[in-house]
Amino acid sequence: MKNTLILSERSADIGGFTVGRLLPVRQKRQVGPITFLDHMGPAEIGPDGYMEVDQHPHIGLSTLTYLFEGSIEHRDSLGTVQLVNAGDVGFMSAGKGITHTERTPQALRNGKVMNVHGYQVWIALPREKEEMDPAFEFAAQTKLPVNNLNGLKITVVAGSGFNMQSPVFGHSPLFIVDLESEKKTTVDLDKHLKGEIAIAVASGKVHVNGERISAGQMLISEDTLDLNITTDPATRILLLGGEPLGEPRYLLWNFVSSSKERLKQAKEDWIQKRFPKVPGDDTYIPFP
Ligand code: MN
After folding, report:
1. Ligand 1 mean position to 192 CA, how many Å?
2. Cα of 124 from ligand 1 centre, angstroms
3. Which of 248, 270, 252 is nearest to 261 (CA)?
4. How many angstroms does the Cα of residue 6 sit away from the middle of ligand 1?
5. Looking at the chain, which terminus has fewer C-beta neighbours within 10 angstroms, N or C?
6. What do you get for the CA distance between the two ends of the chain, in Å?
7. Pick from 277, 281, 282, 249: which is nearest to 97 by CA?
């Protein structure tokens, strides 16, 4: 455990829906390759309004969507149409440029209220892949490796950890792990995960080396050495991190790059409508 930091989420609006933003923060721009983290919910949406994230672009990163409750329909400029249900992983690598939308599925809008709870993560691409062709990967819940450890249910959402490998590898060494506890349990993280780490508490609470971290809070450490988590009963946390990239990343709106010039180019391309479009969608989120 090194240079630890405890943060609380700050609210932000992403299109008819308020999220708790956890990264980036001034004190810590990235955790491993992870540059951005939103905690979505827990919230009830509908019947008056549903999630509507209109067409917007990305470059230089992968976005990962992982829900505990609810469903999101993802559409992108590759022509992908994918329902991401609770427990599934949607993983979109923007590379040189992609456009997408995220909405409550039409089939679930029949005047119903629905619970939404989960995370959206942005992962910076390593320099040699920043300009890769865009791609979308999907892993259904049933494809994710799961193990039980002293009453903890461990699911490897992306990358590798706890001696398991997710089918969603990511583009550099990383881990995103979902940990659910039924009872009070202690786990020595250094045995299972390597690298910089963020411990985000979705529900319940944990103690990390004596410090209490509650739902909506997150602890960051620059390594997992001597890092012990004790979970409360009925607690769910997400562990995220990995090896830092070799050089800093810059963010401009939805764009991530190791080059500030490239960010300006992406901004100009969006304003000039030079990005590919999502088939059949005429919405457009202007550059703020
Ligand atoms: Mn997006």
Report:
1. 30
2. 13
3. 252
4. 26
5. C
6. 38
7. 277
